[in-house]
Amino acid sequence: MDKAQILIASNRGPVSFSTTADGSLEHRRGGGGLVSGMISVATGIDSLWVCAALSDSDRRAAGEAPGARLDRTHDLGGMSVHMLDIPADVLTGAYTDVSNSTLWFVQHMMYDTPNKPSFGSRFREQWGHYRAYNEAFADALVAGAAVNARVAVQDLHLALVPHILRNRRPDLRIAHFSHTPWAPPEYFRMLPSRVARELLEGMLGADHLGFLSPRWADAFLRCCAEILRADVDLERRTVEHGGRVIEVGVHALGADEDLLRESAAEPAVAERRRTLLDLVGDTRLIVRVDRTELSKNIVRGLEAYRELLTARPEWRGRVTHLAFAYPSRGDVPEYRAYTESVLRTAKEINEEFATAEWTPVILEVDDDYPRSLASFQLADVLLVNPIRDGMNLVAKEGPVLSERDCALVLSREAGAADELGDAALLVDPYDTLDTAEALHTALTMPEEERRKRRERLAEAAVALPPRRWFEDQLRSLG
Ligand code: G6P
Questions:
Q1: FRET pair for 178, CA 20 to 30 Å: which of 119, 275, 283, 389?
Q2: Can you give the pTM of this predicted structure?
Q3: In its keyword annotation, does this UniProt entry include Glycosyltransferase (predicted)?
Q4: Ligand 1 centre from 402 Cα, in Å?
């Protein structure tokens, strides 16, 4: 087996498996721009993507080639994949409990702090699983990396990997990229102090740390200064730690325009578009597309729409809210409860305002990518109102595909607001009345202004497409 020059490590890999009716395994490449961007850079170079087996079919695929790489497949452009078959209790502790139920909540500042979190012996056990999971990734990377290889570690699931790798393979050049926001030290400190230190020191094993927004990079630097007492240069964005200088960079991931246009040209998108138009008639459209995710603030988005219909009755019967939410993280109880409250709120609005001819909210909680693309094409207004978000690519993808010069109502707490803020209508995500007013402003904006703003949004959205975003990170490793 050749050793790889470029390695990527992420919890969710570029490919997933399912079992067909006759019992054989079928694989599907991840659809997002990130996967295609990373694969296109690594094509033609010995490269390896290490990820976790996340389903029974994934585990079967990993088990059929134990400890080995899955075959290089045509649609992975020559990149090998090593899917780790991690014991179920370790995966649950690391992914569901620590990453999704704890670190995600900390970085998005989502805790209802008088009640949660509470870090007892159960958490200590989960943290042990998180360590073991990070060790398993490090083992695979150590075994698969050529001398002096470059390793790009992704996201909050794998914060300890850089430190472990540096100890075991000092020849490697290591980057870590955070896809979430980063909480300020006042909030981050709520983690048990040993855990907080271990996370920061784990990441500082890298040569280069990447973030999506200057706000998250600076919050990380402040955590290093306050919690580790590390020597931090806020101006140059560097941390001195363990006798090394670690660079912190901002790489604002953008939309993949080519891939988006290619996907939007599929016949399935035209078909969904016809179905949507049949449903909504000639009403104006406020569109949102998210994972069913607490940080996306879907309930307050619906409340804002209710405020709009209440305060401005002239919109009743003339506007429809399309809310498409992909199911997400059903293993986490808070996500299941949140999905229920999203469904309940939409139902209440429909009960209050619907007429024989008009349904105010069309909400679907399922996975239909062609329908999302069709809704981007048709949107008059795109609503993206997260309470906190690393970047938010919907805010970037929507304006690229919009055919009606959509206006963007955007939370100032999304990383995307850094680049799109001038052309979007920025809102405070907690203020539903402010958001309702912004929806009204968006719906009544003169055509010429909408066109100009939409052009600026689309231009800013594609400034750093995934391929270049990844190249930037590799370049920062020399
Ligand atoms: C966020 C994370 C990504 C992750 C995605 C889906 O955007 O930053 O790394 O892939 O959510 O989450 P999931 O838990 O389904 O992998």
A1: 119
A2: 0.96
A3: yes
A4: 25
